[in-house]
Specification:
The protein has one helix and ten strands. By secondary structure, it is mainly β. It has one domain. A hairpin with a 5-residue loop joins strand 4 and strand 5. Residues 1-21 form the signal peptide. InterPro entries: DM13_domain (IPR019545). This is DM13 domain-containing protein.
């Protein structure tokens, strides 16, 4: 009986993530070091910036696709640039940088996830040598939608 209730609870949590049709978007997240912000994708200009890493999203519990690139400008400010990105809508979606897909040693980049092309500033305290996975994470239900490894 206990096993059946656990399975039903997990199934309801996954269905809740799937049935949400409007992404929850709130004010930009803050980290202890700085405020991060979503930038207008049409305003991002890679001219004069160095491409540090890139990766391709792979689906986890939900279909997720697209590419992500990390650029650094002359002032050492880094930006995550999402291209042709697509994932399912869900409640409480976040973008994390983590050491693996299991959310080890993660840092939250933002609590806004947008389909299409977009960019977001990377917090200065992110260590991309170690935190080289970009995760699309449903915080409310602890569900990984998809991930890209930065190489």
């Amino acid at each position: 009986m206990k096993t059946t209730l656990t399975i039903i609870s997990l199934a309801l949590a996954l269905v809740s993530c799937q049935q949400e049709t409007v992404p929850v978007q709130t004010n930009t997240a803050t980290t202890p070091v700085e405020t991060v912000m979503m930038m207008n994708p049409s305003s991002f200009d890679a001219t004069g910036q160095t491409l540090l890493y890139q990766g391709t999203f792979e689906s986890a519990v939900h279909p997720t696709s697209g590419t992500v690139r990390v650029y650094e400008d002359k002032d050492k400010k880094r930006t995550l640039v999402f291209e042709n990105f697509k994932t399912d809508a869900g409640p409480d979606l976040r973008i994390y940088l983590a050491e693996d897909k299991s959310v080890s040693n993660f840092i939250q980049v933002t609590n806004e996830v947008k389909n299409g092309n977009s960019s977001v500033a990377i917090p200065a305290n992110a260590n991309l040598q170690k935190q080289n996975y970009v995760l699309i994470w449903c915080k409310q239900f602890s569900v990984l939608f998809g991930a890209a490894q930065l190489k």
